[in-house]
Amino acid sequence: MRHFLTLKDYTKEEILEIINLSLEIKKDLQAGIYKEELKHKTLAMIFEKSSTRTRVSFETGVFQLGGHALFLSNRDIHLGRGEPVKDTARVISRMCDMVMIRTYEHSMIEEFARYSKVPVINGLTDSYHPVQLLADYMTMIEYGIAENDVVAYIGDGNNMTHSWLFLAAKLGFELHIATPKGYEVEAEVLQEALAFAKESGAVIKVSNDPKEAVLGATIVTTDTWASMGQEDEKEQRIKDFTGFMVDDLKMSLADKDAKFLHCLPAYRGQEVSEEILESHAEIVFSEAENRLHAQKGLMVWLDRHRD
Ligand code: CP
Ligand code: NVA
User: Fold this and answer.
1) Predicted TM-score (pTM) of this structure
2) What is the pLDDT of residue 149?
3) Ligand 1: which atom is nearest the Cα of residue 228?
4) Is the pLDDT score of 215 beyond 90?
5) Is 2 among the domain residues?
6) Cα(159) to centroid(ligand 2), Å
């Protein structure tokens, strides 16, 4: 049995297998074919943070696969009142067939997975957002991005950045990351990614210079400057991130056909300008749609890999 907690636990072949399965499942859906691979199965979805895309895509995805999703907000279950994670894990995993969790500390999801009898999927922690990257890479494939293309990430060194690092390092593409000083990616995550990059041939460049980072990029991406849980830092961050907005100038330095990705929700006038988000370069709504298809692919893959 496999969990899906970070991309570092997956090989290049496995990541591509999941994405190829997702592309097939998407094609089936477009042709009106519903293969009920999760018939009679339930997915428990534990949300300790807000969500639009993750909730809707998982819930819809399970339904389309013939199963049922349970939305469990920590305001409603005993986890939020102090029932231990390990007890919650043992109870839920005796009743449900898969669990998706969106939470704060990554260690919570690791503990849950240790005690779970069924696959656990990371639907975002403070450290990683791996399901988003499945959808992102699927979108890149659909838009004809080749393996030798360059991705530039401009912004906060956060859960998205960490996930981009592992995706690039595992798949072997070139990734430029530019963060303001003091907002760099975690040193330990960078070291791990660089070790994987040595094996895959990925080129990873980290700097504090957004203009340099976008040079030659075929994909430019960013994320909110204040993630969930950092609301109190928002004002300070807006000041500290001056010059890091993805705007016309930055896009003009990238490849002329460069596309713009963003996991959403986006804050116009902060990490991205209104013009870029509404321009011909944006592929963010295809990216958002692919959350549905990529997670269906992931759930089917995990289900097929059970003992
Ligand atoms: N990108 C993403 O995970 O969106 P939600 O927070 O709406 O789920
Ligand atoms: N970095 C953002 C991603 C939202 C999908 C957050 O954690 O809030």
Assistant:
1) 0.98
2) 86
3) 6
4) yes
5) no
6) 7
